[in-house]
């Protein structure tokens, strides 16, 4: 017993100790709750930063890949127009090597030909009238290939879309 509490009974002193323990228990639970929330906030922050970092890396590498894909398009046009058989064969080997490099970086061509036009993966550069109703709103030609990397769009395909016109 303390000097001021000489008149306090043991029961009163026990009750006072219990109250102080309850207050300390309540305070420790508040601190634990605060600590757990801070820990959860930190984990969420860390996960968000990791995702944002991955997104930035994807965006920046996509820009680089798009530059190289422009060279691939030039190579394809040269291959189509080249009359010399030997030079055409060399360009074909070069294109194959180029495509193998793209595969190593997990780039794959979009499969859009004869499929429904999807504005999320393709840009319509032209519409062409078709007489077959089944070709309506379908990709009927590819002007430039589109590419994905790890199932994410790097470059949309540039396509020609069919528009059904009923013959009279």
Structure description:
This protein is an alpha+beta fold and 168 residues long. It is built from 2 helices and 6 strands; from the N terminus they run H-H-E-E-E-E-E-E. Helix 1 runs antiparallel to helix 2. The longest helix has 72 residues. The mean pLDDT is 92.
Features:
single chain; 168 residues; alpha+beta; 3-stranded antiparallel beta sheet; 3-stranded mixed beta sheet; 6 strands; 55% helix
Concise overview:
The chain has 168 residues and is of the alpha+beta class.
**Strand order in the largest sheet:** 1-4-5
Fraction of helical residues? 40-55%
Terminal Cα span: 109 Å
Radius of gyration, CA atoms, in whole angstroms: 34 Å
What's the overall geometry?
Answer: elongated
Binned strand content: 15-25%
The secondary-structure class comes to alpha+beta
Secondary-structure blueprint of this entry?
Layout: H1 10-81, H2 85-104, E1 107-109, E2 122-130, E3 139-144, E4 147-149, E5 152-155, E6 157-164
Parallel strand pairs: 2-6
Antiparallel strand pairs: 1-4, 3-6, 4-5
């Amino acid at each position: 017993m303390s000097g001021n509490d000489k008149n306090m009974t043991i029961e009163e002193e026990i009750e006072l100790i219990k109250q102080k323990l309850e207050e300390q228990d309540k305070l420790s639970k508040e601190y634990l709750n605060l600590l757990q929330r801070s820990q959860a906030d930190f984990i969420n922050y860390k996960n968000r930063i990791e995702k944002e970092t991955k997104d930035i890396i994807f965006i920046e590498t996509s820009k680089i890949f798009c530059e190289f894909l422009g060279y691939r398009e030039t190579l394809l046009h040269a291959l189509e127009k080249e009359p010399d058989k030997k030079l055409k064969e060399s360009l074909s080997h070069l294109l194959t090597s180029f495509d193998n490099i793209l595969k190593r970086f997990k780039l794959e061509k979009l499969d859009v030909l004869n499929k429904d036009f999807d504005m999320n993966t393709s840009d319509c550069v032209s519409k062409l009238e078709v007489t077959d109703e089944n070709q309506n709103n379908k990709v009927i030609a590819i002007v430039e290939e589109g590419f994905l990397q790890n199932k994410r769009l790097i470059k949309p395909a540039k396509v020609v879309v069919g528009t059904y016109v009923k013959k009279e």
